[in-house]
Amino acid sequence: MSNVYCVILAGGIGSRLWPLSRPAQPKQFLDVIGVGQTMLQLTYNRFLPICPPERFVLVTLQDFAPLVHEQLPDVPLSNILAEPFKRNTAAAIALAAAFLKQVDPDATMVVTPADHVILNNDVFINSISQSIRLAQNSDTLMTIGVKAFRPETAYGYIQVGDKYDDSDPASPVHNVRTFTEKPNAEMANTFYECGDFCWNSGVFVWRRQVIEDAMRKCMPSLQQNFDILDTIPISSWGEAIRDVYEQVETISIDYAVLEKATNESVCLTQAAWSDIGAWNAIYEQCPKDQQQNAVVNSNAYIKNSEGCLVHAPKDEVLVVDGLKDYMVIRKNKMTLICPRSKADSAWRYASEVRAEMDF
Q: Which of 54, 143, 43, 59 minimizes the C-alpha distance to 103?
């Protein structure tokens, strides 16, 4: 597809998957689910049917740029955009759009996180292809929507409206009524029971000019800062990017634009999608034995246990006996053993260990 670029956002720190994910090597650079590829590599390979390596753009933190190049050697070094500070997804997307403004002003951007899992990739890529065709011929901001299977406070929600095109009843594309990022538990339950809300997958499709116009309208201060890069050759961006990032707000694209814009649509995909944001999401994705234990990349002897997740180095042996619904996670001399019901507290454990034990 001409003028299509895949923008991979790879700057997260993955604190909710501690102790596997660490500040120096977060989850996108790890084989989290035991398939022989890192999350970043899985994402890259997923989108190769859409565009060739030279049309991938990676946005990551400065310290992670060598890891990106090491894991994706076919992507040109010039396409790896290094952020000096973490400023969330609005700034990362604005940086990619500024880059494409000089490289290919007519670019269509497919924006994706680096750390999600898609099980039936053909179905997903078909949804992306449909979204690209629509985005290239309209001024819409397209989000890939996923069916909500439970109330979830960690995801954004999209209220699905009428068909985008009334003449095509089979189309999975709808107008967006409302966009709500990370609701509280009561609101998430209401959305789930209502039935006309889907999850926001965090995958977006839009023309470069359309997202720039939306940022200029919804968050003008952010876009004005990135406008400075228009007059500077990409090869000389170094200090200029630092100056821009010192000025811009830390905010997600969801809060900055999507909750405010009026030109939004959603493509409902049938693909099986998971945001690998916490250990329970990994447990859900992994194969299990008859006792519903999941063992990832580990030599584990499990006895009298059920519903457990074990993730440890292959050169170590773990014996797990008498546990129910626990997780045992080990990496580089750090071990986490706790109930799976407390999986969302991993980031808290990491903070407490650093503060109290100087790790």
A: 54
Transcribe 247-298 into DSSP letters: HS----HIIIIITT-SSEEEEEE-S-EEE--SHHHHHHHS---TT--EEES-
- Give yes or no for a contact between 160 and 154, defined as CB atoms under 8 angstroms apart: no
Distance CA 245, CA 301 (A): 49
Cα distances from 51 to residues 46, 125, 139, 189, in angstroms, run 10, 11, 21, 38
Q: What distance in Å separates the CA atoms of residue 285 and residue 177, rounded to the nearest whole number?
A: 31
* Phi, psi dihedral angles at 33 (to 5 degrees): -105, 10
Kindly state the tokens that stand for 163.
């068909």
**What stretch of H or E contains 318?**
strand 317-321
What pLDDT digit, counting tens, does each position of 277-316 carry?
Answer: 788 888 888 889 999 999 987 888 999 999 999 998 888 8
Q: 54: how many CB neighbours lie within 10 A of its CB?
A: 11
**Using H for helix, E for strand and C for coil, what is the string for 90-127?**
HHHHHHHHHHHHHHCCCCEEEEEECCEEECCHHHHHHH
**Which tens digit of pLDDT belongs to each residue from 51-92?**
999 999 999 999 999 999 999 999 999 999 999 999 999 999
| Pair of tokens at residue 73 | 């050697």
CA atoms of 198 and 32, how far apart (whole Å)? 26
| Dihedral pair phi/psi, residue 152, rounded to 5° | -145, 120
- Give the C-alpha separation, 308 to 98, whole Å: 46
Provide the 10 A C-beta neighbour count for residue 177.
14
pLDDT digits (tens, 9 = 90+) for 226-257: 999 999 999 999 899 999 999 999 999 999 99
How far apart are alpha carbons 274 and 120 in whole angstroms?
11
Instruction: Give the integer Cα–Cα distance in Å for 30 and 213.
Output: 36
Place of tokens 């946005």: 59
